[in-house]
Amino acid sequence: MATVSYWLQRQRKPFLQDLASHVGMTQYDNLLKPDLEVALDDYLRKNQTRLHSDPALSPFYKRLENTPAKREKSNGSAGGVGASSAAAEETKKPKRRQTIKAREELEPP
Fold it and tell me: Mean per-residue pLDDT for 72-93?
């Protein structure tokens, strides 16, 4: 099943139907709410260049920009997130266990 925007999931079905007609979707009247959510999410993602400036859709696109996948893509490094964490792991030294000396060993007789 496709991942649907949390913002769309929180909306009521009549609002989703109004939103679908507002953006120009057709044949959404007979869809169940979960199916309408998926169809709207798909439509809004495919038409993002045309619809991203619409104020009624700003909560959808704002959340879409803040997804972890978007942040990773905009990183710009060739190695990605995994390469930087691998380098950090190489520089870490393993923890050594400290032995606790008995009180008798600490105090001279």
Answer: 56
* Interhelix angle 33-46/58-65, nearest 10 degrees: 70
Distance CA 66, CA 55 (A): 17
For 4-59, the pLDDT digits (tens) are 888 899 999 999 999 999 999 988 889 999 999 999 999 988 988 888 888 888 88
Would you say 16 and 23 are in contact if contact means Cβ atoms under 8 Å apart? no
For the chain, the three-class secondary structure string (H helix, E strand, C coil) is: CCCCCHHHHHCCHHHHHHHHHHHCCCCCCCCCHHHHHHHHHHHHHHCHHHHCCCHHHHHHHHHHHCCHHHHHHCCCCCCHHHHHHHHHHHHCCCCCCCCCCCHHHHCCC
Distance of alpha carbon 96 from alpha carbon 86, whole angstroms = 21
